[in-house]
Input
Amino acid sequence: MASSIPPQSTAASSTEVLQALAELRLEIAHLGDRLTALESRAAAPREVAAEISDELLGAIVAATSAYLGVRPRIRQIGLVGGGSWAQQGRVSIHASHNIAPHHDD
Output
């Protein structure tokens, strides 16, 4: 069976391979720099608003009023960091699914 790749000179293909390799190394270095920047940004502590705005408080009151059917007396509102809390919720949901193996007869 004959090869469908056209014949090329060895010198030309070696030069192209070296050039492509150099370009790939530059791209990998660039991606490494971007990854380092993203990791440092993700590791930096996030600033949390010191107080809740009047608009947000009004939205919370409206939502709880609609849900409960009466206007609630809100005593305290606090912002909760969502990282581990959200992950634990996802773990709980995934754990609640009973997946039985499917057997073909």
